[in-house]
């Protein structure tokens, strides 16, 4: 299998997550599995549940991260956040990269699920590529409002090199 590169924007986002070896993590929209690969390499007793509404995204993540699945660090499911039943009582981190759910429609049920499952001291991270740049204020405003309405405290973080902006929502 050919070595797959991991884009700088994904590396930056995973660094911001600061995953610890025993963390329970939820990835919303795993796509090609680049973030899952990085996160699983940092886990020891922790686990990552990666979900995607796209069957092809799930298949790509499963192929890319087969060794992590075999080791028990990763579970990949074809499901959306609205219908997910989180298999662990508490999550340390949940994150999404370029998932428009949080700013294009009502997502109160999904935010409530995250608020219920993220442990005190844990956080939800939403990352967006800043393209087109004129859309960034709208994305930040709408996603922040949804998270605040769901009981989170929100802060914004921006990358220096890749044009990525992130929201960190803490319980």
Throw out a few tags for this protein.
171 residues, alpha/beta, 7 helices, Rossmann fold, seven-stranded mixed beta sheet
Outline the structure in words.
- This protein is of the alpha/beta class.
- It has a single domain (8-170), classed as Rossmann fold, CATH 3.40.50.150.
- It has 7 helices and 7 strands.
- The protein has a 7-stranded mixed β-sheet, with helices on both faces.
- Strand 6 and strand 7 (164-170) form a beta hairpin.
- It is globular.
The global form is globular
Unreliable residue runs: none
Q: What is the average of the pLDDT values?
A: 93
The major sheet is characterized as: 7 strands, mixed
- The SS-based structural class is alpha/beta
State the order of secondary-structure elements, H for helix, E for strand.
Answer: HEHEHHEEHHEHEE
In CATH, the topology is named Rossmann fold
- CATH architecture assignment name: 3-Layer(aba) Sandwich
Taking the alpha carbons of the first and last residues, their distance comes to: 41 Å
Number of domains: 1
Rg is: 15 Å
The largest beta-sheet arranges its strands as 3-2-1-4-5-7-6
Number of strand segments:
7
How would you name the CATH homologous superfamily? Vaccinia Virus protein VP39
If helices are DSSP runs of H or I spanning 4 or more residues, what is the number of helices? 7
Would you state the CATH class?
Alpha Beta
Helix content: 25-40%
């Amino acid at each position: 299998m050919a070595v797959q590169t991991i884009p700088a924007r994904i590396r930056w986002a995973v660094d911001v997550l600061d995953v610890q070896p025993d963390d329970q993590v939820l990835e919303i929209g795993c796509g090609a599995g680049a973030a899952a690969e990085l996160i699983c390499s940092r886990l020891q007793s922790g686990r990552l549940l990666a979900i995607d509404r796209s069957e092809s995204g799930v298949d790509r993540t499963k192929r890319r991260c087969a060794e992590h699945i075999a080791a028990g660090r990763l579970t990949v499911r074809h499901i959306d956040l609205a219908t997910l039943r989180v298999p662990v009582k508490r999550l340390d981190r949940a994150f999404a990269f370029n998932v428009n759910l949080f700013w294009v429609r009502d997502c109160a049920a999904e935010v409530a699920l995250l608020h219920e499952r993220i442990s005190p001291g844990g956080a939800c991270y939403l990352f967006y590529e800043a393209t087109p740049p004129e859309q960034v204020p709208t994305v930040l405003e709408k996603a922040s409002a949804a998270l605040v309405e769901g009981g989170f405290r929100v802060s914004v973080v921006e990358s220096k090199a890749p044009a990525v902006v992130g929201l960190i929502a803490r319980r």
